[in-house]
Model the fold of this input.
Amino acid sequence: MAPGAGAMQNEPVILRDLHEVVARKAEGRRCRDSPSWRARAIVSKVGKNCWNMLPNWVLSTSLFLELGKLIHQAHVKWAGRHQTPATRFLRNVRLLELLRDIALKVPDEVKWRVTVMGCSTGAELYSLLWYLRSARPNLQITALGADAVDWVIAKASSGEYSPEDDELSWLTNPILESLFNHVDGVFRVKDWIREGVRWTVADARSSKLLDELGPADLLLANNFLGAMSDQEAEACMENLLRLVSPGGYFVFNGNLDVKTRFAKKHALVAVNEGIEAIHFGDPSRLGWPWTYFASEPLDKSRPDWQTRYAAVFMRGVEIAKSTMGRPAKFSDLGQYGTRRAS
Ligand SMILES: C[S@@+](CC[C@H](N)C(=O)[O-])C[C@H]1O[C@@H](n2cnc3c(N)ncnc32)[C@H](O)[C@@H]1O
Done:
């Protein structure tokens, strides 16, 4: 067998995905000259302009919600699902605030294990640690960032970003000063934020994931499950949930039907504080139904809307048994999600 062919076969699936994206992009550039691509682009542009002219009360009727879902589905089908390493510091401030509020309830003597799976170049984990360590300077937090791609882990571990990097593009000068030391044109995450973070290459689908990463009291798996097929995403969620300690928190997104089915199956308890603000808290997910990654509008007529739109779930023990259909209130959670230091 040719060496190249062997290497491709043993390559982690995620790398094959990323290579496919590059190939598809090159193909896309060729396709853009095709009549069918141009026709779809025109229909999409005209449709989007008409949509944006309609008043909000029309767009929030059930007719337009259903129409929007069809447009979004067609858009995803047209664009195709794909993985990207795109990430930003302070990507979803409302989510970070909720996670900080959860950390505020963790008793002092607890050692809190925080893992970010699919961490890309580190912006999400560093942003989280900035919030957590600012709010709880004396809490022992062990932090782990994992991603299937080695070059993003190398960058995350360096903690260094250049002023042109997309990761920094949403930050104001005062925030840049709080997060980084700016030396010789490089922004370096401050030591008290970086301290003790472990960065590792790992595939979220690996059957050895628990051995590789260990359990977590807070596990984030944001913005990569939606790029998988529904079946693959659900299997991946199963794999990831095994890492979450009983009473711990699982923060994840992806296809809303898949996420809701999974949360119900495992009686995960949706944390209902700030659901709406967090659902729309990531500016890169605005623009529904015309953008691939966009978040659909909240449909509060659904009996399961809190489970569907929540970002943060608790892997409960006692309260989970009785509460599917009654998502937990933040005040319910005080006694959960903690583990005594060994
Ligand atoms: C869009 S980025 C999201 C980064 C960060 N979580 C955020 O929300 O800003 C998705 C990352 O997930 C990683 N990823 C995708 N599939 C993965 C898998 N099976 N295991 C581990 N990482 C994966 C990609 O390599 C990429 O760096």
